[in-house]
Amino acid sequence: MERNNQLLKKLDFWCGIPLLYLFSFFKSQKKALPKSIKTVGFFAFAAIGDSILSSGLFEKIHARFPGVKIIVFVSSSNAAIYSIISGYDQLVVLPIAKPWQALPILRKYCLDLLIDTSQWSRIGAILSFLSKAQYTIGFKTTGQFRHKAYDAQIIHQSDCHELQNFERLLAPFQIMGPIKPMLDLLSIQKADSQKLSAINHPYLVFHPWASGTLSEMREWPFQSWVELAQQWIRQGLTIVITGSAGDASSAKTLAALIGGGKSIQVMADKLSLQETALLLLGAKAVLSVNTGVAHLADHLQVPTIALNGPTNAVRWGLVNPNSKNINVSKQNGGGFLNLGFEYPSNYEYAMNQITTQEVDAALKQLIAH
Question: What distance in Å separates the CA atoms of residue 24 and residue 188, rounded to the nearest whole number?
Fold first, then answer.
């Protein structure tokens, strides 16, 4: 689903579930796995972080089926991340907000296998069922009523990291073992570095902005960012604030509160994803709320801290040894988000329980190592 569009989410739920129930009556008996796999399609309609994590499937497919062609079907909201992901052969943007337009595009491709990496939305399941793919694989997620569209239904688990759930999508073909996101370092290193030339080294990257349902509940207080930034500026570091076009105004406000002259650089809405990745590679460390930038920095092996708050770090935390998750405990109102939208009706903001002292100590430890 296109992120933050509440109307589309409601249509996906109220129309998608009955439609998939109807489709189940037309589902043929259990299919055998295709004997020949030459073309594999992937549905990757979710956020940038999910796209990074699921890209590790490409390498496994290539190893199991030498010479296979991989086509990735994406939405307009996450297509840009594939400029720095490798391992696939073709990228196709589907207008999933207009499925009557998306379906004819999809059916132009004759796929031996289609793997839907979506966890909860029904649109991926619907398009999978209506595609021309010989065999389809997708998640059976508790409470989402989407699984009957697939030939192979993989149980989506809420007690493990999402990398492990993605790994299980390959189980029907006995493809086992951990996956590693396929970030294209050569593409990143070829990014235009001119916009970064004015940034004084050494620098820290701050990414204070979340996205998705109730994103403000996953953001750290402005005053905490200000206090931390001022401490590190006094130690001689530059603070670089990243973000999207929608974050640019808030980023400028935050920079003004911090002060610091040239020691503060606002790069929100100024960089492509390739340029952002290059910026991350040059940082002493990255501090971010749990979002796509945090996962990108983490898998680029940059020392990274994720401020998780309501996000469950077991499900979505950083995984590399040179990164650190700072969490709010479940007892204090944190660590409950599984798919990203499970907020109780009376939920109270809890990110202010993460202290600047705790984050400062973690940054010092990462940089020292």
Answer: 44
Interatomic CA distance for residues 183 and 302, integer angstroms = 13
> What is the residue whose two structure tokens read 């991350």?
280
Q: Tell me if 6-182 shares its fold with 188-368.
A: yes
CA 336/CA 283 separation, integer angstroms:
31
Q: What is the pLDDT of residues 67-113, one digit of tens each?
A: 999 999 999 999 999 999 999 999 999 999 999 999 999 999 999 99
Task: Name residue 90's beta-bridge partners.
Answer: 71
Kindly give, in sequence order, each residue whose CB lies less than 8 Å from that of residue 366, ignoring residues fewer than 6 positions away: 285, 303, 304, 305, 322, 323, 324
Domain assignments of the chain as residue spans, ordered by start: 6-182, 188-368
> Cβ neighbours of residue 261 under 8 Å, at least 6 residues apart?
none
Tens digits of residue pLDDT in 27-57: 766 788 999 999 999 999 998 999 999 999 9
User: What does R_g of the chain's alpha carbons equal in angstroms?
Assistant: 21
Domain at 6-182: CATH architecture = 3-Layer(aba) Sandwich (3.40)
Intervals of the chain under pLDDT 70? 1-5, 28-29
Neighbouring CB atoms inside 10 A of 295's CB total: 27
In sequence order, which residues have a C-beta less than 8 Å from that of residue 336 and are 6 or more positions away? Answer: 310, 312, 330, 342
Distance, in Å, from the CA atom of 254 to the CA atom of 82, rounded to the nearest integer, reads 30
Helix (H/G/I), strand (E/B), else coil: 176: coil
DSSP notation for 293-320:
HHHHHHHTT--EEEEEETB-HHHH---S
Q: What are the residues whose beta carbons fall under 8 Å from the beta carbon of 182, sequence distance 6 or more? A: 55, 56, 58, 59, 85, 86, 87
Predicted local confidence at residue 26, as pLDDT: 78
Q: In this structure, is the dihedral angle defined by the CA atoms of residues 354, 360, 366 and 369, taken in order, positive or negative?
A: negative
pTM above 0.90, yes or no: yes
- For domain 188-368, give its CATH number from 1.10.760.10, 3.30.420.40, 1.10.510.10, 3.40.50.2000: 3.40.50.2000
351: tokens are: 């990110």
CA distance 187 to 101: 31
